[in-house]
Here is the input.
Amino acid sequence: MKTTKIDRGQILTRYKPMESSAHKGTQGHALIIAGSYGKMGAACLATKAALKSGCGLVTAFIPRCGYDILQISVPEAMVVTDEKRSHLSDIKFSVAPQAIGIGPGIGQEPETKKAFAKFLKTNTSPLVIDADGLNILAANPSQLQWLMSGCILTPHPKELERLLGKWDSEKQKLALAVRFSTEYKVLIVMKGAPTYIVDQDNIYENTTGNAALATGGSGDVLTGIITSLLAQGYDAVSAAILGVYLHGLTADIAAPDISQEAFTASDIINNLGRAFVNIQQPIA
Here is the structure.
C-alpha cells in the first residue's frame, strides 16, 4: 500500500488563505452536536476549536444542562439545546450548517442512541463523527449504510478496534481500514503516533505532532478543527489532511516552551493561530 506523507509541501497545495473581502457569512457555518451531563467540556473544546480554525459561524447543539456552560465558555458561539437536560434525545435544529461534527461527549443513553440513528438517516450535510458517535456505530453496524459518501470518522485506537475488529500488525490494521473505507466510502482519521488518514486505497501519514497530544480532549479539538474546515468549503480529504497537520503542529510549536507534560487540549486551541501563521510563511 502506497502512503503519502502529509508535510508542509502537501499542505501548501491544499491550504486556502482567507479572501480580503471575507465576512462571517462567507466563512462557513459549522454545527457541533456534543455533550452530556459531566461531559460538557468536550462540547466546549470542539466548539471553540471550530471557531479558532477560521469558521465564520459556529452553533453548538447540546443538552440543556450545558446552556450556561457553553454561553460563558465560548461566547462567540450560538447555542441550541435539546429538550432533555442531561443528554441528547431529539436532534432538531433550524440552522443550515455547511458541515456538522457529532459525537464528543454525547454518551450512550438509549434516547441518545435513537436520536443519533434518526439524525444519520436524514442528514445531508458533510459530517465528522467522533467519540460516542463512533461507539454507537460500532454497536449498530447496520447504521453504517446511512453514512454519506465522504463522511469522516475520527477514531482513537480502541474506537477503531470496535469498528474494524482486532488486528495483529500495523499492516493488517491499515488493510482492514482500507477495506472498511472502500466498502462504506468514508474517510478514516486513525488517530495515533503517527496519525493516518485512509481514503479508500489512498493512505496519508501525518508528520506533525508529538506525545504532548496524549491528553484528554485532544480528539474533541480535532473534531472541531476538521468540521470547521469542511464548513469553509474544503473537500473531505483536504479538511482531514489540513486538520491533522495543524492539530499536530500546535504541539510541535508549544511543547518546547511549556513541556509535553503540561500541554493540554486547550493548548491546542490556543496555539492554532501560531500554526496557521507557520503554514502561511514563505518557504525559505
User: Anything to note?
Assistant: The mean pLDDT is 97. The longest helix spans residues 236-258.
